[in-house]
Give the backbone structure.
Amino acid sequence: MYSATSGALVAQSAVDTIANNLANANTVGFKRTLLQVQAQPTTQLYRFQTDPTNTSGGAPAQQPIGALGSGAQVYDTPADFAQGAIASTGNDLDVALSGPGFFAVKDGNGALSYTRDGEFTRDQNGVLTAQNGDRVLDASGAPVVLPQSGKVTIDRNGAISVDGQGYGQLGLVEFSNTSALRPQGSNRYADTGNAGPRAATNTTALQGSVEKSNADVIRSMVDLIANERWFEANQKSIQTQDTAVAQAVQTVGRSNA
C-alpha cells in the first residue's frame, strides 16, 4: 500500500509539472520543467527459523530472501534549457537569444536574476526593462538607459545604438553549469552559487524577434494522459490492498464458538 501511495504521489507531481509546462506554452522564453524520479531505499528480507539455535542439517538460522522496494520519490525538477523557436515581431526592443546565453536583470529590490525573455520596453526614464519592470543590465552590470526617442539598433553581439550613437551592450551571460540555476518565478532563474557565470561567447542576439517557449504541447498532452493513467493504477492498487486488509480484519479473528 505504501509503495502504491508513493507511486501515486509521484504521478501527481508529474501531472502538476506537465500542467505548468502546458500553461506556459505561449510564454516568451519559457523553459519547460522536467521531473526526475528515483527509487526509495530498499529493505533486505530474511527468513528466520522459529528456533534459531536449531541448525541441524546445516540449515542456517536466517536465510536471505531478497530486496523489497518501498516505492518511488521525486529526485529533482530541473529546467530543460533547450533552444526554443525564434519568432519575428518587428519590435526594435524585442531581442531573442540564439545559443545558451541569458539576459541579466535586476528587480526593484536589486536582486539579480537571469532570463531568456527578451520582450523589452522603455520606462518613463528611458531605462530598458522587462515586461514586469525588471531592469535590463549591460555588460558592466548597470541598467541600460536609452533616449526616449530615436531608432534603436541592437547588433548580434548585443551592442546597442540609438540613431548611430552607442549606448553600451547587453549583459549576456552563459553558465558552465546550468543545473545550478533555479527558477524564481516570472520566467526568472537565480544562480545558487555553482552555476559558473561568464560573459557570453556562443550566443547571438536577434533584434526584432523573441524566443518562444520550448514546451512541446503534443508531447506534454501524451505525458499528461500517461501519468493520469499511472495515478489511477496506483489508486486501484491502494483500494485493492485496503479491501484485503478490511477482509482480514473481519474474518481472520472471527471465532466459530
About this structure: The chain has two domains: 2-46+61-78+216-250, 86-211. The chain has a mean pLDDT of 92. Residues 104 and 114 are 5 Å apart (CA to CA).
